[in-house]
Each structure stands twice: as C-alpha cells, then as structure tokens.
Amino acid sequence: VDVLAEKDGQIIAIQTKCYNQPVGNKAVQEIVAGMKFYHAQKGIVVTNSTFTPSAKELALANRIVLWDGDTLLSKYRMTEDNLFDEE
Predict the structure, then answer these.
(1) Nearest Cα to 24, choosing from 48, 1, 58?
(2) How far apart are CA 30 and CA 58, in angstroms?
(3) d(CA 24, CA 67)
(4) pLDDT tens figures, 41-67
(5) Which residues contact 25 (CB under 8 A, 6 or more apart)?
(6) Rounded to the nearest 5°, which phi and psi values hold at 25?
(7) Are the CB atoms for 27 and 55 separated by under 8 Å?
(8) Strands lying side by side in the sheet with 10-17
(9) Residue 44: CB atoms within 10 Å
(10) Residue 87: pLDDT band by 50, 70, 90 thresholds?
(11) Phi, psi (5° rounding) for residue 46?
C-alpha cells in the first residue's frame, strides 16, 4: 500500500503504479493483501496506464476500484479549477 487515507472513519488503501504497459494482477493482489493488513474498508489501484483484462476481473471479484490514466486525468480536470481556492 502506497497511501492510507481516512474519510468519515473509513480507511482507504491506495496502490499506485506508474507504468508504460498495462497493470496486471500483481497490483490488485498487493492492494487486497494491504487492505487486510491495514484493516481498510476500501481499496483503489491508480495508474497512469491501463489495466489488463485479468486485473479488471480480479479487481471486480475483490471489490477493488481501478483508476486508469484516463480516469486519473478526468478527476484532475474536475478539481484543477479548485486546487488553489483555499489560498
């Protein structure tokens, strides 16, 4: 697990992968194990790339959220206008 976050009493485990190729099952397996270790209720794997079909299937079976590069960029664009609002 690269990042542990907490929101409303819920622990979220986040695994990040900066790859040039699709992310495979190993990243999903890592977050599943990390969630158990840290007693997290939610797991997310984030990458700048994409995910293999088998990684998607494994994530679905384990209720893991996957954010690929397009999703990450979309979420960034949704917030970029608000990044410095608190200054």
Answers:
(1) 58
(2) 12
(3) 13
(4) 999 999 999 999 999 999 999 999 999
(5) 52, 54, 55, 58
(6) -60, -30
(7) yes
(8) 3-7, 10-17, 42-47, 65-67
(9) 19
(10) very low
(11) -115, 135
